[in-house]
Amino acid sequence: MNLPFMRALKRDRFFQLLIIVGIGLSLCVPFTPHTWPGAIDWHTIITLSGLMLLTKGVELSGYFDVVGRKMTRRFASERRMAMFMVVAAAVLSTFLTNDVALFIVVPLTITLKKLCAIPVNRLIIFEALAVNAGSLLTPIGNPQNILIWGRSGLSFAAFIGQMAPLAAVMMLTLLILCWCCFPNKPLEYHTGTQTPVWQPRLVWSCLGLYIVFLTALELKQELVGLAIVAAGFLLLARRVVVSVDWTLLLVFMAMFIDVHLLTQLPALQGLLNHVGTLSEPGLWFTAIGLSQFISNVPSTILLLNYVPPTVLLAWAVNVGGFGLLPGSLANLIALRMANDRRIWWRFHLYSLPMLLWAALVGYGLLQLR
Predict the structure, then answer these.
(1) In this structure, how many other beta carbons lie within 10 angstroms of the beta carbon of residue 320?
(2) Domains in the chain: boundaries
C-alpha cells in the first residue's frame, strides 16, 4: 500500500466532503453502483493524467527555476509580475484551454516563490480567474465552448465575435482588480538562492512527449498517448511518476459520480423538464446557478438537451465558472496545485464578487445586443 498516497487522502478534506455528499445522494436515488463508472468522463481523467505527468516532468527538470529567475530580473515590482502572469494565463487559455494554461502558469508561480517574496496564493487565485475569463473568448478555450460551438453551426470567427463583449469586460475587470490588489513595491529577492541547475535532456523529452500526447488526443487515442507518456517517464525519470498528485484524479472521479447522482434527483429532473419554457432571465440564472453546484461543463451538457446553443447559454455557463469552487474544474486544478489549505476559503473572497459582477454586467450586455 502506498502510504504517502493514503496520507494525502486522509488530509484531503474536499475529497472527504465529496464522499459524504455521494453517500447522502445515493440514499435519495435508486442505488445502482454499476452505472457509476459510466458517469465518469474518462477522457478528462486520461487527459489530466497526461498533463500532470508532463508538467511534473518539466518542474522536476528545473526549467521553471531558470524561467523564474529570468522573470524576476525582468519585472522589478510585484504588480508588474502579477499583471504579466494574469495576462499570460488568460492568453494561453484562449488556445490551449483553461486547464492546460494552469498546468503551465501555476507551477511557474510556485517556483517564483523560491526566488522572491510574492503573495503566491493570491496570484494563483487570480490566475484561476484569468483562465475562466480568457478561455470564454474562443470556441476551443474550454470544454463548454467546444460543446456549444459544435451545436451552434457558427464559424470560429463568428463564435469569437459573440463572446468578445463579455470576455473584454471580464478581463478589464480582472486587470483593474489585479492592479488594486498587488502593490507597486519592488520585489524582495531571497538571499542565498543558488543558480538553478536544470536538465535539458528531461525538458526536451517532455516537449517530445507533449507533442505525442497532443497528437494522440487529436486522433482520439488518448489512452495510447497516456501509455506512451507514462512509459517514457518510467524509462527516463521514474521520480516523475511517483511525484504526481494522483489523488486529484480521485477527486474528479468522485465529482463526476456525485453529479450523476444529483441529476437523478426527482426535484432536479422536474426542474430541467421546464427549462425550455423559462424566460431569458430565468434561463440565465438557472444556468449560472446550476453551474455553481455541478460545474459548468455538466451543466452545459444537461441544458443543451432542453435549450438551443444560444449566446445567452454560452455566456451563462461561462459566467458560472466564477463563484463557488465547483463552478469550473479549472478552479479545483489551480487550488490543488497550490497545496495550501488557506487558499480554499480565500479563493471565494475574490470569486464570489466576480460572479455577482459577471452575472449582472453580462445580462446587461445581452440586453444591448
Answers:
(1) 31
(2) 63-197+245-368
